[in-house]
Amino acid sequence: MIRRTRHPEATVSARRAEAYTDGVFAIAATLLVLGLTSQSLGTVNSDADLAAAIGALLHPVFSFVISFLILCIMWMTHVRQFEWIVRIDQAGLWINNIRLLLVVLVPFTSSLDTDYSEFLLGRVLLPVNFFLAILLGWVQWAWAVRSGAIPDLSREDARRLGRAGLSAVLISGVAVLLSPLVGSVAFALFIFDGLLTRLLRGGDAPADPVRGAPGSPGASEGAGRLGE
Fold first, then answer.
1. Is 90 exceeded by the pLDDT of residue 169?
2. Residue 87 backbone phi and psi in degrees, to 5
């Protein structure tokens, strides 16, 4: 079976929305590094001074790395969702646009976590930012299932993948609750994302509609996983 690239009821090509979203994620991930370049190393007169100054950047570096990795997780989920979504209407576009609004805010809230982690808002705003963006990613999948935008996937498999997507939502929600105490360190909980994804999904993820087609190179690979 060849997947259709355009649904007859589409208002905007899903492929164009996918490409635009890829670009926004790439820009947001790149801008994260500005939080490091804005950090002053102070006066450096020796290798020891430089080593000490770099060591003092431990928290900014951690905030940068964890923010980048979580953006990667969100982007991977987006890619896997659009392996199945073949159309997108006005409602779907606005869900995606609001999610991207939250994505482009990540460099700002990450800088707050770096510079103002001694204050409650400095510790909490980045986890809240990620929670809302991840939640909207799950809402987008729920919208796609409800609107019939996934013709190549059974309703039961679509719901299983939706349950799998709840893993990141639950983990980021717990991170928000813990952030007043430990700040962005709470994001370490994402090491359990793969295990929780499999538990919530139940069974293997369905093969995607291209590589999983009969006779295709990836038909036996079980590719196209959502939320792992």
1. yes
2. -150, 165
